[in-house]
Amino acid sequence: MAGRRGGGGGCCPPMDLFRSEPMQLVQVIIPMESAHLTVSYLGDLGLLQFKDLNADKSPFQRTYAAQIKKCGEMARKLRFFKEQMSKAGLAPSFKSTTRDDINVDDLEIKLGELEAELVEINANGEKLQRAYSEMVEYKLVLQKVGEFFHSAQSSATAQHREIESQHAGEESIDTPLLRDQEMANDASKQMKLGFLCGLVPREKSMAFERILFRATRGNVFLKQAQVEEPVIDPASGEKVEKNVFLIFYSGERAKNKILKICEAFGANRYPFNEDMGKQAQMISEVMGRLSELKTTIDAGLAHRGNLLQTIGDRYEQWSRLVRKEKAVYHTLNMLSLDVTKKCLVAEGWCPVFASKQIQDALQRAASDSNAQVGAIFQVLHTKELPPTYFRTNKFTSAFQEIVDAYGVARYQEANPGVFTIVTFPFLFAVMFGDWGHGICLLLATLVYIFKEKKLSGQKLGDITEMTFGGRYVILMMALFSIYTGLIYNEFFSVPFELFGLSAYACRDLSCRDATTVGLIKVRDTYPFGVDPVWHGSRSELPFLNSLKMKMSILLGVAQMNLGIILSFFNAKFFGNCVNIWFQFIPQLIFLNSLFGYLSLLIIVKWSTGSQVDLYHIMIYMFLSPTDDLGENELFPGQKTVQQVLLLLALVSVPWMLLPKPFLLKKQHEERHQGNSYVPLETTDNSFQLDTNHDAHGDHEEFEFSEVFVHQLIHTIEFVLGAVSNTASYLRLWALSLAHSELSSVFYEKVLLLAWGFNNVIILIVGIIIFIFATVGVLLVMETLSAFLHALRLHWVEFQNKFYEGDGYKFYPFSFALASDEDDF
After folding, report:
1. DSSP assigned state of 809
2. Is the pLDDT at 515 greater than 70, yes or no?
């Protein structure tokens, strides 16, 4: 296996994913005059993870706090521009036609000027829009109230003429003697009535009317008229349905009450003149004013749109520059000043292979900034655990994310991601085996793969983005599902004779006894997968149950053995002989003495066609190891073999438990007999000692009781886990059976049932139900279920045999990894 990445010689190329990249702690001493450019070039390179050397300082006490504040202010202005563009329906241009090499100081001035101009335009536009909305409301008031006064005046004139005509006739004895005086008195009363008009929101009109009536004790006359179209409210700027109101009152006290009520209800009041001539003049003036405001508003919107379009063309370039500057100054704040205050000292982790690239970037920065002194790059030796860094591509990254979701690999321990690429989709396919469903998954995934360039640049929804990120995982799952579906011989639960004719045939032409007496073998065994004749036969379920259950045990034991073998490579890589002799060997013996032996019995039974009961063999191997096997004997000497294996399994338990704590105590005492420095060449071993001996520091006390209890727990966990984990792999059988039976039910009880009615409408309905059931249940829910179960088998049953998963990721300072949300 690819242990240490040395040289590049040997028969096999190094496996980049099997071990994380060798890392080193480096120190870079940068002159002040080239610090900004140096950090910028290192951000472009993206291979150095800086350590915060000013962790004890608050953000305001750091050297470049003012510059970060300035970048934050520029970011705020850019956010303001983006909000304004969004409101205007414009989108920032991702392909800028102008490439200006603008300075940050010049950009700050430019953004300030643009913000001031845009704020002024917005303020003027709001004032104009408010004035325009008021004019629109005023026009409506003039129209509606004018109509009321006109109709009232016409009615009053008609009544007056009627009274005069009656007065000109013969006066009877019933004519009031004081009529003239009463009319004079009524006229004098009418002269004292005042009125107010305006608009009130329609939803408040009823409450408005009730409050007016109560406040004035009914001494008002209110007239309302609905406005057909919603109008823009001058105060809120939103469209509101309103009513025009006209209130007649008497006295100043009533007027004050009405004014307060209007203010409380948000009713806008407007002046109105009773003179018909002045009304026409006011309407003419309002219409002219509306035309002028409309022209001015349109001109302002055009100017604002042009300004926002200009900003949008350069928005991405400016935002990229501001994000870059902010990231550079954040990183510079992590560096410490030397005593002369002329240099900045940086420390960080980088892969060993990146040393030359980093040094080239440092030299280029010193040259471009015309610095008199170049930056100094040196490697520091430390016992601190380095970060974990795997070089992945778009295919392997999703599989690595599956492993990292459980825990990031410890530095240079064996990475299960290499094997997950194959084992994860394969175990999924064992549970999902149907080559028809596999083809559906494949087609759906190919859409994502063919459109990956287009989709990778778009902002997708949560579920879509997650599915798109795992497109290559789903591709492998689909391919393996087609493979296992061909083995199970199921296409939407329908078998096909793809690889030849069935090996079995009916006893006679009528096939009457095919489901009772059975079939006879007439040809050679079906060449690939399950013989199609098994489907629908009376022994289908017992046969497939037996096959899938035994296959699940074989796959489970094989994967657990792989995990134990990987623990050997971990121990060998870190030079930990204790783990090899007192963890790897007894674990391998214990697992294979019991379940490895069971797997061997399964294979022998399949090979010989024997009818022995494996349950009986395994149970009595523990209960009565000295009894004869009788008819359950598969091979000569089986009883002796079982006794030896049982003895080895019993011996391996104290072998795991007892020696390791005492040996660790002895190693600790030898290591701390003298306080001497560890040689630089044993840096790798220092990582191993820190991580494998449960010691949190070389000078901490060795707690033997704690180590012994830990080892006891580990031993009990493995012994019990060997049983429970093997049983856990039976989920492969259970989910495969469930998937097959569900598919069969949908096919027989929906599709075939609809076909049997000989009715086109019922057939169409049946096909639609079958499609929705297949997609919703089998292609979505069953896919998710099998995915989660495969995930559990890898995280718990496989990775707990060797994987520590307590490392931390390598997060280099990189402009490419910075996102808008993080920096803005």
Report:
1. B
2. no
First-to-last C-alpha distance (Å) of the chain: 45
Residues making up the chain, counted from first to last: 824
DSSP state for residue 92 in the 8-state scheme: -
> How crowded is residue 235: how many other Cβ atoms within 10 Å of its Cβ?
11
Quickly count helices (H) and strands (E) in the chain.
Answer: 28, 13
Dihedral angle over CA of 321, 327, 328, 331, nearest 10: 180
pLDDT tens for each residue of 425-476: 999 999 999 999 999 999 999 999 999 988 887 778 888 889 999 999 999 9
CA–CA dist 445, 719 (Å, integer): 41
Angle between helices 540-573 and 597-608 (to 10 degrees): 140
**Beta-strand runs (E) in 321-479:** 336-337, 343-351, 376-380
Query: Rounded to whole angstroms, how far apart are CA atoms 462 and 468?
Result: 10
267: DSSP letter = P
Instruction: Grade residue 516 by pLDDT with cuts at 50, 70 and 90.
Output: low
Cβ neighbours of 226 (radius 10 Å): 11
Cβ–Cβ < 8 Å for 454, 94: no
With a CB cutoff of 8 Å and minimum separation 6, the contacts of 254 are: 216, 219, 220
Helix (H, G, I), strand (E, B) or coil at 242: strand
Residue 485 CA to residue 479 CA, distance in Å, equals 10
Residue 366 phi, psi dihedral angles, 5° rounding = -65, -40
* Beta bridge mates, 388: 809
Residues 765 and 779: their CA atoms lie apart, in Å, by 20
Report the amino acid identity of residue 91.
Answer: A
- Any residues with CB less than 8 A from the CB of 484 and at least 6 apart, and which? 426, 429, 430, 432, 433
Q: pLDDT per residue over 776-794, tens digit each?
A: 999 999 999 999 999 999 9
Amino acid at 577: C
266 burial class (0-12, 13-18, 19+ CB within 10 angstroms)?
middle
Under a CB-based contact definition with an 8 Å cutoff, are residues 409 and 805 in contact? yes
Q: What average pLDDT does the chain have?
A: 86
Whose tokens are 């409050």? That residue is: 211
Contact 191, 250 (CB under 8 A): no
Quote the CA–CA distance of 330 and 316 in Å, as a whole number: 21
For the chain, the helix, strand and coil percentages under 3-state DSSP, each to the nearest 5 = 65, 10, 30
> Comparing C-alpha atoms, which of 352, 346, 350, 382 is closest to residue 51?
346
DSSP H or E run through 292? helix 276-332
Helix axes 276-332, 35-45, angle to 10 degrees: 90
Q: What is the pLDDT of residues 578-612, one digit of tens each?
A: 999 999 999 999 999 999 999 999 999 999 888 89
The whole-angstrom separation of Cα 392 and Cα 399 is: 10
CB 803 within 8 A of CB 413: yes
- Listed in sequence order, the DSSP H helices in 624-702 are 638-657, 659-671, 683-692
**CA-to-CA distance for 66 and 58, rounded, in angstroms?**
13
Residue type at position 527: P
Q: How far apart are CA 554 and CA 597, in angstroms?
A: 11
What angle is formed at CA 544 by the lines to CA 538 and CA 548, rounded to 5 degrees?
A: 165
Query: Could you tell me the CA-to-CA distances from 716 to 652, 653, 710, 711 in Å, in that order?
Result: 12, 9, 10, 9
Whether residue 639 contacts residue 645, with contact meaning beta carbons closer than 8 Å, is answered with no
Distance between CA atoms of residues 571 and 581, nearest Å: 10
